[in-house]
Amino acid sequence: MAAPLKNAKAIITQALEKSENVEKKEYAGSVNSSHGTEENEKKSFKTEIKDSILTGISYIIPVIVAGGMTLAAAVLISQAFGLQEVYDTEGSWLWLLRQLGGTLLGTLMVPILAAYMAYSIADKPALGSGFAAGVAANLIGSGFLGGMLNT
Q1: Do the Cβ atoms of 147 and 113 come closer than 8 Å?
Q2: How far is 130 from 148, CA to CA, in rounded Å?
Q3: Which residue in 15, 108, 120, 127 has a CA-CA distance of 20 to 30 Å to 90?
Q4: pLDDT digits (tens, 9 = 90+) for 38-61
Q5: Hey, CA dihedral for 134, 126, 57, 71, is it positive or negative?
Q6: Which residues contact 105 (CB under 8 A, 6 or more apart)?
Q7: Which residues contact 71 (CB under 8 A, 6 or more apart)?
Q8: Alpha carbon of 67 to those of 13, 53, 63, 74, 131: distances in Å?
Q9: Which GO annotations describe the biological process of this protein (predicted)?
């Protein structure tokens, strides 16, 4: 551990000497054989769509779980402590917890699905446009299918 700190120049020269002794065939052939064929092959449209949907679903699962757990916590608290009136009263803390779990996170599901489907296709720059397409799908009421098709 201390050797690189004490003898930095000696270690750098040793690494450079070792790199000069290695023939290009030894490391160039192994890289090309494992990665070159996969990158050159074009994915089919069907595979691209499937991968896109699966990526969107994998990113939406935590949102679904968070919404379900929040909604379940609100229901459990209201039933365990007899707070059904508080649960039904608009603006109360328990009503807000129910709204957070059911409505708010439910509204975010389609935009998140659309955003990460777009991310799967075009990487990070597509997140914003995918999220906007998901919001548009929510506004027109087309649901998950609309979010997928907008992407």
Answers
A1: yes
A2: 9
A3: 108
A4: 554 788 999 999 999 999 999 999
A5: negative
A6: 63, 64, 66, 67, 70
A7: 98, 101, 102
A8: 57, 21, 6, 11, 19
A9: phosphoenolpyruvate-dependent sugar phosphotransferase system
